[in-house]
Amino acid sequence: MTSPPPSGPGRPGSQTALRRRNRQTVVHALLANGPATQAELARQTGLSNATVSNIVKELAQEGLAVTEPTTSSGRRALSVRLQGTRAVAAGFDVGRRHLRVVLATVGYEVLAEDAIALPIGHSAEDGLDAAAAMLDKLVDKAGIERRAVIGAGVGLPGPIERERGTVLDGAILPAWIGTNVPKAFGERLGLEVLVDNDANLGAMAEIAWGERQDATELIFVKVGTGIGAGLVIGGKLHYGALGTAGEIGHTTVDPQGPFCRCGNRGCLETLASTSTMIESLAPSTTGPVSTADIVRRGLEGDSATLRVIDDAGFVLGRVMASLANFVNPQVIVVGGPLAALGDAFLDPIRRGLVRHAVPVVGETTQIVVSSLGDRAEALGAASLVLQHAGLNSSLRSLLDDKAVDGLTARHV
Questions:
Q1: What's the pLDDT at 32?
Q2: Radius of gyration of the chain (CA)
Q3: Of 17, 131, 263, 302, which is the most buried if we count CB atoms within 10 A?
Q4: How far apart are CA 80 and CA 68, in angstroms?
Q5: Can you give the pTM of this predicted structure?
Q6: What pairs with residue 102 in β-bridges?
Q7: Measured over all CA atoms, what is the biggest interatomic distance in the chain, rounded to whole angstroms?
Q8: Which domains does the chain have, with CATH numbers?
């Protein structure tokens, strides 16, 4: 019988190598999913509770992680998060009228954030200039070195060709169509750049930053100038063949309805977007109407505004019903600026869902507003960087070789 080869410290089968792999697995989970209890880490990694507990103790002793008392399922538990500001992710949310940027640590703590208005129809060059200026401003505000930024995530409204990161036809930003975002942003910022649709990033943020960390079947619906959905199925984002899954804004609701920018008639966006709501309210007002005005007047109980909100919400619920019938989600999270309306917006959405969904789906699907407000997409963009942290070799020197050496890309 042949004797097994010796298991020295550097050999794959040694106990040292096994402990190292287990440690890397735990760090991976914390980078990918954000703070978690030790029990959640055990479920995420497949390691035993005892193994996770020992690794967490080591990370805490070395100053790489922090534990805090919390409750989980009504029981006392320890929440674990990575710490340190030597490795920071930048998240950019570029909209039709705005730019929001956040800087977040590997422990999913926001160091700095800001938002500015952008002109409607802005070019990719204008957006890049604004993004670069805001990044420099926030780095100074956070008191960190520029080299601490390990990468940037960028969220854009509309379909993104996932393989190359190119903005496709149908985007809310027509001047950006054809732009290779990773290349353009990468050259301008001097960083590795990842890009995704803003609704996908909203869904990612709800799981990594929000109150839905346990959800494995979730739909995030972003309602703004455009309408899109991010789909979490089996605990992972679902992209489809090209990366355009969730473009519900161009679902035909009324075949004889208004012309849509996509070339069809009666798409959801022509009936329920913020732009359509603004147009509907224009005849009843004496001045220009903004999305903020819709929220304010809706909360004040203005009858005309509430009617427009009700009509839009019911149509949204009807389309969500079809999506829910296919996906059967645990929860649908409504994001975007109208989420601030709360039940004034959710109630008609619920009615539309219950009216048009399979009864058991309509009765069991929870509909809530995002707990992250208008920060969701930028936070999701930052977490996109953290989840792919192994792609950036500089993370090893900025965090700690012992914690992250050997990390490889982890795609969601």
A1: 73
A2: 23
A3: 131
A4: 7
A5: 0.81
A6: 91, 113
A7: 93
A8: 15-74 (1.10.10.10), 88-202+375-401 (3.30.420.40), 211-371 (3.30.420.40)
| Distance from C-alpha of 23 to C-alpha of 30, rounded to nearest angstrom | 11
Contact 389, 34 (CB under 8 A): no
The two tokens of residue 95 are 């909209």
- The two beta strands, 193-197 and 218-223, are unpaired
What was the pLDDT predicted at 101? 97
Confidence of residue 99 (pLDDT cuts 50, 70, 90): very high
Closest CA to 95 of 154, 157, 48, 178: 157
Q: How does the average pLDDT of the chain come out, rounded?
A: 86
Category of 361 on φ-ψ map: left (φ > 0), alpha (ψ -120 to 50) or beta: alpha
How much is the pLDDT for 9?
43
- 358's tokens: 């399979």
Tokens at residue 319, please?
């389309």
Confidence class for position 13, pLDDT limits 50, 70, 90: low
Q: What is the pLDDT of residues 161-210, one digit of tens each?
A: 888 899 987 668 889 999 999 999 999 999 999 999 999 999 999 988 88
HSE-CB at 384 with a 13 A cutoff on CA atoms is 30
Cα 320 from chain centroid (whole Å): 19
Which residue's structure tokens are 């605990």?
235
Q: How is residue 133 written in tokens? A: 């200026």
Q: Is the Cα torsion angle 118, 122, 124, 126 positive or negative in sign?
A: negative
Read off the pLDDT of residues 340-396 as tens digits, 9 standing for 90 and up. 999 999 999 999 999 999 999 999 999 999 989 889 999 999 999 988 874 343 344
